[in-house]
Amino acid sequence: MNWINYRSVKSLSYERARIAGLPETYILTLSQEEASIYRDMALAIPFNPYRQDEQEDFVRSAKEIARSFAPSSRKFIEEHLQHGFGAVLVKGLPVDEELPITPQTGGPLPPDYKTTFVSEAMLLALGELTGAEPFNFRQEGQGKAPLIDNIVPVYKLKTQKGAGGFDNNFPFHCESAWHRKRPDYLILLGVRAAEDAQTLVFSTRMFEGTPWQTASADIRQWFRLKAPDLYVQMEKAGIPMGTADFALKPPIEHGPHGIQLHINFNGTDCIDMKAVEWLAELEDFIESKTVGTIISSGDALLLNNYLTCHTRTGYSPVFNGMDRWFLRGYFKKDLWARNEKAAGEVYDEQTFREMIALGWMSDDGTLTTSFSKFVHQPEEVKKLEDREAALATLAFQLTPIAGTRLV
């Protein structure tokens, strides 16, 4: 089948000049008293989230902060995030009082780059309120993925449609919608703001009263979502994807619990020109209905990754050490749940026995911590002989390993 790359046919043309603000209905502002309590709790955490051997202790400590949130705040977040608009902006969060300059590159931070980790603790505390576990994809940070991503402008990546880029060329998307471990929730927490950079949000609620609310089910086979270019490049360089290269998903899906989005206007193939035209109409509709907000220091935008899609406007960093900087966290329910269907597709009896012999798999069919080095050290995969490399490619489709957080 000759799939058509949507983006190669529908050129980018985003005005994004008149964006309505995120409605006050979806904004939760913490009191100074609450913020003070959370700041003290965060500063009391003796662990560093950027040290792998201290990460789980930091996560556990941050979850204690979540338990201190007022019942009214927890209810507000749950109602709007889980069952409503799908987005909540939390304002008034405590911040790190002494900040270094904005990093020149994103992804992981050196463990000693910051002296306090108040923002990181608040990100994970808010994640706990979603009922999901924090995790990340191995490929982030050019294969040096931290649990928490630091997103900053990078001069040489100006036109990149994603982290590091800052041109007005970033299409709407749901985060990693093609991946078998797609995030259920995404949190963006401001460290430093750029006053000309808006984060844009579209919700399924905006379909109400329009023909899109009853989009035909016959579009299911019209589209396929694909992996980002970075992930494909890393796979070609010997770092396995860990999931299928493509997923057949319609941009809008009607289910028993309402409409869900599977949007990535920069990573969708269409079956024919009719599908291209349909998707172009949808993109134009989303662009016309979006709302936006500037994520300032002490703000956190929580997004339901099935009820919303998002992007940002272009902006103009000056690279003086004070540029835009925010934290990004992914959260997944049942992160370590065993997928029997996936397991059955990954290995037959011979493969199973070979993985056990290598020490990568236990008798019950789960990956062991012996395989962890290939997850955390991508260069180790390249050292494997052909058969072992093929087995590792299969094993990655069973990650994350129980108790770890990289997929």
TrEMBL record:
Q: Which InterPro entries match?
A: AlphaKG_dependent_hydroxylases, TauD-like_sf
Q: Which cofactor does it need?
A: Fe(2+)
Q: Which UniProt keywords apply?
A: Oxidoreductase
Under the GO molecular function aspect, what terms does this record hold?
2-oxoglutarate-dependent dioxygenase activity
Protein name per UniProt: TauD/TfdA-like domain-containing protein
Natural source organism: Chitinophaga fulva
